[in-house]
Design brief:
40% helix; alpha/beta; three-stranded mixed β-sheet
Length: 364
């Protein structure tokens, strides 16, 4: 797999987000020639530069996927594009549908156009379960986004376009886990939209590893679907209260927000006939349109048995399993780690503190 990215120039739109930073971290192990981080969030770029300051092959560009001319210039010598940039917050997109269309649809078409113009080898699109039977403007835009990416394979014999579809990832921007933790710490209260609401969930490192793996094995126009377990919002709240709260922590039902589904889908009833079991980690959905490509390798694989995959009819994550998932990341021990780090910092000499600040790029 390392050879797929070695000495390559990789472009990541929306690269300063949670997915982009984890993707960058994992790609660095493959020794790419250059990674271009393209985003419009200045503060996030500053933070990311500090985090990855030892890696001189990472370049940062502040701009927007809506600007095709800028994209065309920046991607001139790019080999691989990971397209992550999106407006993703469901209620925000409901309130600003025009902005969602401009970024999520027009921005994606711009990525396609510049990839074709510059003969990019591969374009890997990161999609979402909200694109399946969409109910909100974000999901609708993502559904169109997927269609654009798949159809782009008909326009080129050299550039491969592929979609990777997944659900919610722990700790990413806007996800419920950091929100609940913050509520518990600041207000000793958790606001729950609907206790029975279900969501797919996965660790960020695992999701990005699956993204990279699928991008390596992609052919033309497939939609790779990550197999993800689901959990209820109530179970998430109860588990986090158990860890970060107390018997005095309250819960308040506030109702669903604009555009929210009770259950999400990873594969719809209309896609199930074209959905095959690739391995224990993925399903693969073949294109509905004729792209002119050969999918014999996939058609030999077994099809899924369910007529659709929803977040309430597949593998459920128990409270104990969710807790273990949290243990694998920093969620359980980050408070103690912070206390320990402060105590250790107080014990350092002046020279050691200066050295530490220089290493963190807090001083020059």
């Amino acid at each position: 797999m390392e050879q797929s990215f070695k000495n390559k120039v990789i472009f990541i739109s929306g690269g300063t987000g949670s997915w982009g930073q984890e993707l960058t971290q994992q790609l660095l192990a493959s020794s790419p020639s250059k990674i271009i981080i393209y985003s419009r969030w200045e503060h996030k770029q500053v933070d990311m530069k500090r985090k990855f300051h030892e890696h001189k092959n990472i370049h940062y560009v502040i701009w927007d996927v809506r600007d095709k001319e800028r994209l065309l210039s920046i991607t001139k010598w790019v080999d691989i594009i990971f397209h992550l940039a999106a407006l993703k917050h469901v209620p925000v997109c409901e309130e600003n549908p025009n902005e969602s269309v401009l970024t999520n649809i027009l921005g994606t078409q711009n990525i396609i156009d510049v990839a074709l113009a510059n003969n990019v080898e591969r374009v890997i699109d990161v999609s979402t379960d909200k694109a399946v039977d969409p109910f909100n403007i974000y999901g609708t835009c993502k559904a169109v986004w997927e269609k654009l990416i798949i159809a782009a394979n008909m326009q080129s014999k050299s550039t491969t376009f592929v979609c990777i579809r997944g659900g919610n990832v722990l700790g990413t921007n806007g996800s419920v886990v950091p929100l609940f933790i913050e509520q518990i710490k600041k207000a000793d209260l958790v606001t729950i939209t609907d206790p029975d609401m279900t969501r797919y969930i996965m660790r960020l490192a695992e999701a990005v590893w699956l993204l990279i793996t699928a991008s390596v094995h992609a052919k033309w126009g497939e939609v790779f679907v990550m197999k993800m377990p689901w959990i209820t919002v109530q179970t998430i709240a109860d588990s986090l209260i158990q860890v970060f709260g107390s018997e005095n922590t309250k819960q308040k039902i506030v109702g669903s927000r604009p555009g929210e589904k009770k259950h999400e889908l990873l594969v719809s009833q209309y896609e199930s006939e074209r959905c095959h079991i690739l391995n224990e980690s993925y399903f693969v959905i073949l294109p509905m349109i004729d792209t002119g490509k050969d999918y014999t390798e996939y058609t030999k694989l077994p099809k899924i048995e369910q007529s659709f995959f929803a977040s309430n009819n597949t593998n459920m994550l128990s409270a104990q399993e969710f807790v273990e998932t949290l243990r694998k990341d920093w969620w359980f021990n980050h408070i103690e780690q912070t206390k320990t780090a402060i105590q250790e910092l107080e014990q350092l000499s002046k020279d050691e503190i200066i050295k530490y600040f220089l290493h963190q790029q807090w001083a020059k």
